[in-house]
Design brief:
Chains A, B: Pfam families: Peptidase_S66 (PF02016), Peptidase_S66C (PF17676). The structure is a homodimer. By secondary structure, the first copy, chain A, is an alpha/beta fold. Chain A has eight helices and ten strands. Chains A and B meet through helix 6 and helix 7 of A and helix 6 and helix 7 of B.
């Protein structure tokens, strides 16, 4: 992986984060060229520009013949609004690339995986440089660009796998963008949701996920305090629904909204 | 409708609200007997008792031969955890009854409607007596018990209809509990969700709702303030997704998390 193009299918990236990532890459990974599309920095309401602008930037990155990987800058919500059009019109150049991100951008990863376009990879994003230890998250991805081996989620077992933010997966299931995940280990993580909302979302996904190989649970962080205790921790919640639906619960996963978030290439890692 | 049994499939009701509703009913609607099941007042973590306790109370109310209607006391989250077992084991007595509620209890209404068990009716619940004008919401339901005609949502057009909290519907679509809603007008309302979350949920439901007659939007209340403006109001959001998916947007609906919440019998009102 030599040339990496960055665009923002959901919400905008602060320029200072792009600059910090570019600086780190230039000083430590001289073999990699990072190209931040100007669209990353556009702000329009919630989004990094209107749908058409985000879609155009994604096309530019995906269709550029000299780009090896498209790295999503940030999640936050919005990639579902452009995913269908992107998949429908992606050119032949798009098929040879690797696409990286997580959180809301899991919608695009799922859609790419379903359409068998390129290679979908759950991975930290440029915005993660702002976190405690964020430099390490960025190095993990840049290192993986170089060798395709380091920084991987340690529990990858040889079964096909996919990793998602729970809420993002909840909004993806049953849609035209949802990939078939029979036989896959599903890794999920969540941030900022009440336990009752986690319970509700896990109900929804286990209703949809038939014949998966199992579920592993990543970090569940920043759970807000409700007016009363829910009565079960996130891991108990996932165990409960897995048991009810006959889905193997396979333990914890090293993914989440933190700098410890590891890399998970969708499907069968070569 | 003479005898109405109240249970709480999700979260507990405060006894003072039950007492206030009982008092109002006794003084103004002497022909109606209201029976609050003690399970309404159980608190265990988030729920009005463990799943089995809530399920048992629901069975007792639904299977009682002298009960005409089962009125859900309160939403809040949890009825999805018992809906499948209830539907699977509901006795013949359950089929002759009317079931009323909204919000989280929309899961049960949807499941009953799918299973063609009894009559599912979106309506205010006993907990609504706590609201400004809550007495009127309670009178609306008690009056409807008496005559089956007043208090109805004013836009009911003669097309089959169903009404849901948006998030509840979002978690219901594609599940074993989801009724077929082809040809139906779908009324949705929401409370306490960010606009970006509303956008995400509407995406999810329009992906699932094929061949509905259209969508009407009820109240969208208590939208939290985000760190930046979303850029579209809830009605614009619903119009946007309806237009993208070729679903008629049919205007506003008089439902919501307020005392103005009107009654919507699912299906074709006789």
């Amino acid at each position: 992986m030599r040339k990496v193009a960055v665009c923002a299918p959901a919400t905008p990236l602060k320029r200072e984060y792009a600059e910090a990532v570019a600086k780190l890459a230039a000083s430590e990974f001289p073999g990699i060229t990072l190209d931040f599309h100007e669209q990353c920095f556009i702000e329009e309401g919630h989004f990094a520009g209107p749908d058409e602008v985000r879609l155009d930037a994604l096309f530019e990155c995906a269709n550029a013949p000299d780009v090896d990987a498209v790295w999503f800058a940030k999640g936050g919500y919005g990639s579902n609004r452009i995913a269908r059009d992107f998949i429908g019109k992606a050119g032949p150049q798009a098929a040879g690339k690797t696409y990286l991100g997580y959180s809301d951008c899991g919608t695009l990863l799922g859609a790419l995986y379903r359409a068998k376009i390129g290679r979908a990879v759950h991975a930290p994003m440029p915005v993660d440089i702002k976190r405690d230890g964020g430099d390490e998250a960025i190095r993990r991805v840049l290192g993986w660009f170089g060798n395709g081996k380091t920084g991987l989620e340690p529990g990858l077992s040889g079964k096909p796998v996919a990793a998602f933010n729970l809420y993002t997966l909840g909004m993806l299931v049953g849609t035209q963008l949802m990939p078939p995940l029979d036989g896959h280990e599903i890794l999920i993580e969540e941030v900022g949701e009440y336990e009752y909302a986690i319970d509700r979302l896990v109900f929804h996904i286990v209703e949809h996920l038939h014949d998966v190989a199992g579920i592993r649970l990543g970090e569940v962080s920043a759970v807000p305090e409700n007016d009363r205790p829910f009565g079960a921790e996130p891991e108990e919640i996932v165990r409960y629904w897995c048991e009810r639906y006959g889905i193997p619960y396979l333990g914890r996963a090293a993914i989440g909204h933190s700098s410890a978030n590891r890399i998970v290439p969708f499907g069968l890692e070569a």
